[in-house]
Amino acid sequence: MADKKRIxxxxxxxxxxxAAAKARRMDEHAEITILQKAPDLSMASCGYPYYVxxxxxxxxxxxxxxxxxxxxxxxYLNAKGIVAKTETEVTKIDPKGKTITxxxxxxxxxxxxxxxxxxxxxxxxxxxxxxxxxxxxxITTLQSMQDADxxxxxxxxKKIKKAVVIGGGLIGIETCEALQLAGIEITMIELLPQLLxxxxxxxxxxxxxxxxxxxxxxxxxxxxxxxxxxxxxxxGVKLKNGTELPxxxxxxxxxxTPNSALAKNAGLATGDTGAILVNEYMQTSDPDIYAAGDCVxxxxxxxxxxxxxxxxxxxxxxxRVAGENAMQGNTVTFPGTIQTGICxxxxxxxxxxxxxxRNARAAGYNDIETVINASPDKPxxxxxxxxxTKLVADKKSGKILGAQCIGPGDVSKQIAIWAMAIKGGLxxxxxxxxxxxxxxxxxxxxxxxxxxxxxxxxxMKGRMKGIxxxxxxxxxxxxxxxxxxxxxxxxxxxxxxxxxxxxxxxLGAIRKRLNELPEDKNAEIICYCKISxxxxxxxxxxxxxxxxxxxxxxxxxxxxxxxxxx
Amino acid sequence: MADKKRIxxxxxxxxxxxAAAKARRMDEHAEITILQKAPDLSMASCGYPYYVxxxxxxxxxxxxxxxxxxxxxxxYLNAKGIVAKTETEVTKIDPKGKTITxxxxxxxxxxxxxxxxxxxxxxxxxxxxxxxxxxxxxITTLQSMQDADxxxxxxxxKKIKKAVVIGGGLIGIETCEALQLAGIEITMIELLPQLLxxxxxxxxxxxxxxxxxxxxxxxxxxxxxxxxxxxxxxxGVKLKNGTELPxxxxxxxxxxTPNSALAKNAGLATGDTGAILVNEYMQTSDPDIYAAGDCVxxxxxxxxxxxxxxxxxxxxxxxRVAGENAMQGNTVTFPGTIQTGICxxxxxxxxxxxxxxRNARAAGYNDIETVINASPDKPxxxxxxxxxTKLVADKKSGKILGAQCIGPGDVSKQIAIWAMAIKGGLxxxxxxxxxxxxxxxxxxxxxxxxxxxxxxxxxMKGRMKGIxxxxxxxxxxxxxxxxxxxxxxxxxxxxxxxxxxxxxxxLGAIRKRLNELPEDKNAEIICYCKISxxxxxxxxxxxxxxxxxxxxxxxxxxxxxxxxxx
Lengths: 566, 566
Prior knowledge:
2 copies of one chain form a homodimer.
Chain A: E1 6-10, H1 15-26, E2 31-35, H2 48-52, H3 73-80, E3 83-85, E4 88-94, E5 99-104, E6 110-114, E7 117-120, E8 124-126, E9 139-140, H4 145-157, E10 162-166, H5 170-181, E11 185-189, H6 201-213, E12 217-219, E13 224-230, E14 233-239, E15 244-246, E16 249-252, E17 256-258, H7 261-265, E18 276-277, E19 289-291, E20 296-299, E21 306-307, H8 312-328, E22 341-345, E23 348-354, H9 357-362, E24 368-376, E25 386-394, E26 400-407, H10 411-423, H11 428-432, H12 448-460, E27 466-467, H13 469-477, E28 483-486, H14 490-495, E29 503-504, E30 525-528, H15 533-544, E31 550-553
Parallel strand pairs in A: 1-2, 1-7, 2-3, 7-19, 9-16, 10-11, 10-16, 11-12, 18-20, 27-31, 28-29, 28-30, 30-31
Antiparallel strand pairs in A: 4-5, 5-6, 8-17, 13-14, 14-15, 20-21, 22-23, 23-26, 24-25, 25-26
């Protein structure tokens, strides 16, 4: 029947099945086919690290619906009316003839399929460094179900003692935690000076400290120069600085490359990131071909610049738009991303949305304000846990540009709040009086996010001069003549303190002990406490008494990423 | 010194101390005085139920800073430079003479204090029903520290066996849980047909079922007519329908009345709610007098109508604005509320933001769309927990008007997301492609909130005809000729089912069993499953095969508030 629309979807992991299912719901009678290179379909690939780490043991949970039905070709046929062919690699797209050629990887046979509309969801491939020894046994990535099986087997066999994880991004950190849970001694190696590049350095440093405190080693500013082996098996890695680390396993997690070759070979346009170019309808340069997921580039909604954002949630949303438009013409749009991301780091969360300070400056935002806020997520009597947030806002418009949050507290809610603030184009002024759900089991009376807005507002109004922990450290290391004021109580000071030459004057005693402060009213004074709330109040008192150069160390001791005396 | 501004704050619970502290940070040299009727200051009153329930045992945690310093007059003097007088009741405001008269409740002495700016934060008083027996021993509220002490003592003494909680709002539910945790047999009595009036009926009913499943009795649509007693002590309550319930304790939680008499007597304007009128600067009808917290009314930002919104978080935000403006003239504003609220209901959360369907219709929104979405908050392999959300949107503009969410899952994040969506004036279209933080430990690939937006979008585009559980129940009870299709698997059906005459046809079998469906293509068919995702797919299949009157029961079995066969 010529009136049955033929839709072919290349790729069956995240965006592909979503596009196919959406297309089906738009038209019960279309012919919809998914061609998938891998043996499995619709894998919950973001769950691999938790399977490897033993958070759950039933492998099938990665492959089945919530009610336990495996998402295999039979499921797709019966429940969705979709033909899904696995181990089927598409080798060529002929846009003129509107056909694709696919190879059955089991038989080697090639076959052609005609399409009315094509949806490319070919995903991405983990990058591998082109260095000696890369093909040794014991070197893997964690991207496919097969990778997950391989690492899970290592966990279950309990033979491997030492491993390295190469790359300190999201996947690297999740893999590090998974292997550490498997009882393996881990070293994480990152070429850049920090982990998790969606965070600014001082935030990433707090995450690094937390990784270390969970008995994983971290090496930054250093890369792998060579994989060392014996009899074809990995025995260690040699770093760029010459250090050799013995290990039996190396997981490479240095990012992914979009799988755009098939599209490129068919003459479809790709962008600067190397990924397939699509418009807001998820349509490629060929109007009959759509693309979605890790193989495309999409606009960053803040900068307007195209980015490669290989996130599972975006793949699903893009797939939904591609599927609907492929079926019934361009009616819905996918506007882009603000690059919201989160990962679990042992019992911490670490997330970000929008622009970091570094990315904001790189994008040309030169007049920005930032702040670091540390506070619990809930009251102490409800066992509140620490959150540290860094907020970035445009000074003139007050617009929120980005937020980063880490800590054992409810990071996910904080990032969701800021993601929505950015989505709504909200300003600091808007956030200062946000109306969020408050009850002691869920938040402070003034939510952590709102408090962060209050502090950045104080800075923007010139009521608070902030200084970062990094700047303080530099001053201390350089022997600069600054007066450091810790405004906590003596009991707190006994238990924990920086030990950088600070003077302890409890907040409640400052007004009586002003004579202990520098006589020179222009002397540089830096106030702080555990989270710098009392530090801020101390600064206001000193300014009220005539000192002109008083700063607050943002986030206080909780944001200090360097070793402490205690 | 005449250049020292004199600020008096009447009330020292939430808004008052916040206003005073903010005023101090604006001016180190002003004279700031808090006059507080109660013996304590800055009590974490929202924490009372958790102290009563034994979530924590250290009473001082309700009264001290995070580092353990009690917020008493000495603390205020030393740390804040604020004079705080407790057990001091302000009896009169003289706006012309700019003085107030206060009575020392310990000595009975009256004293006058002059002010330059006055801030009224007198809070609210729990309503008590004017019915016989209201003064018996054993009847209390849970609003003051003394109430909390009284109820905590009851918990610790373990003598009382039976109690009633009168009122099924936030405080009523929190008190119910607290007393149930104290081992007391509880009956909750609500005059209206439902608990938690910020929820629509069908959502509240799910909460009610959860309260019952925690061994607390719930009586709705009924009130207390009389308190029964012997020798001055409560022995029971008589309900309006004549039922008598024996009990030794009754906690009254039927709402609060703003304490506006002092202001009214001074000639300040009050509004329709009986609370003090303020402008966006939190300034009363007298330019030298500000007010904040439970004693004022503020705009609902959606309807524009003034409301009495006695929430602890708003009190703090309003106090901050009042304190700053009182000190340095009107520079900052508090725009109003979207009436975001949340409470813990045993291991459930229940929250809402914006308008419920009922409130939207009452406010004149006649062209609205609603949807109920049920899904886990996280993947099954991360032990996701159920969330049920009801979303309300304006049909023409697509604007989100309100959201309600309940369940054991992460309700707080969901409500925060929707609160921010409303704050940003976002539409369904915006939410459909929201960029939220995704990783399996924190959410589904398509977050529950985004999925709710997808479903309401499908409804708005006419792709899904929804029907509520209440409408289905009505049809079934009336014996209407509807074909009910449960699209789950037989194993699921064996374990749990409605038993309302439904036909089980698993989603994957529907295309082969179309002959079992009504021959009449206009017959009314209602599809559902556990959460109605498969129900929706089933409906799309049937529509694709020509049935014209196919509906999806929103939220599926998880949103069914009535008894089930299994």
